[in-house]
Amino acid sequence: MARSFTILVALLLFWLLLSGMFVPFLLAAGVGSAIAVLLFSRRMDVIGGEELPNRLHWFKLLAYGPWLIKEIILAAWDVSKRILHPKLPISPALVEFTPSQTMDAGLVIHANSITLTPGTISVEVEHGRFLVHALSSEAAASLAGSEMDRRCADMEVR
Amino acid sequence: MLAAATLALLVTVALALARAALGPTIFDRLQAANTIGTCAMLLLALLGFLGGRPEFLDIALVYGLLNVLGVIAVLKFFLQGNSSATGQVRRSEELRP
Amino acid sequence: MTTLIDFLSALFLAGGAFFSLVGGIGLVRMPDFYTRMHGASITETLGAGLMLIGLMLLAGLTLVTVKLAMIGLLILFASPTATHALAKAALLSGLKPRLGEQHSTTEVASSKP
C-alpha cells in the first residue's frame, strides 16, 4: 500500500511539473489520470518486486552522477577519434567478468553505466556475471575491478 | 546555431536511414530506427526553440517514450513471434537466417 | 551577460551537432552490428546531452528547462535499456560479433592466412 501511495504522489508531481497550469479542470484531470495509471499498474501487477530505494547511499549516488558524466565525455572522445580515424583502429572484444555488487539496484546501475559509456555495451547481465562487448581492447581490459565497479558496490547499504 | 544543429541532426537521420537500408540484419535496422527516434526527439526540441513554441517539448517527451517502447516491442515480436507477455523465447537455431 | 550565455549555448549546440554527426558516421562506417551500436551510443549520450544543455542555457530558469532536463533523464535511463535489449537479442539469435585485433577486412585476410 505504501508503494502505491508513493507512486500516486510521484505521478501527481510529474503531472504538475509537465502541465505547469493550475486551473481546477486540469488539476482534476491530473488526479484522475494518476489514479487511472495507478489502477492500471496494479492490474498489470508491476508494482513492487524491486528493492526499496532507501537501501542505497544517496550521497554516493549523487556524487556518482558527475563522475559518470566525466567518464562518458572521456570515452565518447576516445570512440569519436576511432570513428573518424581513416584506418578505423578498433579491436572489438567480448569480456566476461564478475561484478562485485550484490543487490539488483547496484547491478542495474553498473550495467546501465557500462552501456551509457560509449565503447562498452553490457550484453548479458546476471548476478555474478556480466558479458560486455567492448570496442577496443583497452576498454575491455579496464572493465573488471574498475573504479565504476567499486563505486557501484560502495553505494549499496549492507 | 539552432539552424546548424538542426541541419546536423537531419544529416545524422540521413546516415541512419542509409544504415537502415543497407543493414544486413534486422538488428542493424532496429538500431537505425532507435537512432532516428533519438534524433527526432532532439529535432522536435530544436524546432520548438526555432519556432518559439515550447509546446513541442511535450511532444518530444512523448516521442522519446514511444521510441523506447517501440524498439522493445518490435524486439519482443521478433524474438517470440508474438507480442504477448507470456510467449516463450524461441531457440536461437530457429532464428538464424 | 546574455551574450556570454548565447555564446556558451552556441558552443554546446555545436558540440552536440558534431558528436551526433560522428555517431551517424560511426553507424555507417563500422564493420558489424555490435561495433555500430558503439557509434550510435555517442549520438545518444554526448550528442543529445550537449544539445540539451545548449537549449537549457537558451531557455533560462523556466519550466522549459525542467522539461529539457526530463528529456535528458529519459534518454539517460531508457536508451541504455533499449541498447542492452537489442544487444542481448542479437547475441541470443546467434549473431556472432567480429572479434580481435583488426584494422579492416582486407588486412585481416592478408595477415592471418
Task: Give the neighbour order of strands across the main sheet of chain A.
Answer: 1-3-2
Query: How much helix, percentage-wise, in residues of chain B?
Result: over 70%
Helicity range of chain A: 55-70%
Beta strand count of chain B: 0
Which segments of chain B are poorly predicted (pLDDT under 50) over 5 or more consecutive residues? 86-97
Whole-Å distance between the termini of chain B? 45 Å
Q: How many discrete domains of chain A? A: 2
Name the biggest interface.
Answer: B-C, 51 and 48 residues
Query: How many domains make up the 3D coordinates of chain B?
Result: 1
What overall geometry of chain A do the principal axes of the alpha carbons give?
elongated
What features would you describe in this structure?
The complex is a heterotrimer of chains A (158), B (97) and C (113). In chain A, 58% of the residues lie in helices and 11% in strands. Chain A has helices spanning 2-19, 24-43, 58-84, 104-116, 137-141, 147-155, and strands spanning 93-97, 120-126, 129-134. A three-stranded antiparallel sheet of chain A has the order 1-3-2. In chain A, a hairpin with a 2-residue loop joins β2 (120-126) and β3 (129-134). The two termini of chain A are 25 Å apart. Chain B is built from four helices and no strands. Chain B is flat. Chain C is elongated. The model of chain C is unreliable at 102-113 (pLDDT under 50). Chains in contact: A-C, B-C.
Key descriptive features of the protein:
heterotrimer; A: 158 residues; mainly alpha; 6 helices; 58% helix; B: 97 residues
Topology:
The complex is a heterotrimer of chains A (158), B (97) and C (113).
Chain A: H1 2-19, H2 24-43, H3 58-84, E1 93-97, H4 104-116, E2 120-126, E3 129-134, H5 137-141, H6 147-155
Antiparallel strand pairs in A: 1-3, 2-3
Helix pairs in contact in A: 1-2, 3-6, 4-6
Chain B: H1 2-22, H2 26-50, H3 56-80, H4 92-95
Helix pairs in contact in B: 1-2, 2-3
Chain C: H1 2-29, H2 33-59, H3 63-92, H4 105-111
Brief digest:
Chain B has 97 residues and is an all-alpha fold. Helices cover 77% and strands 0% of the residues of chain B. Residues 86-97 of chain B have low confidence and may be disordered.
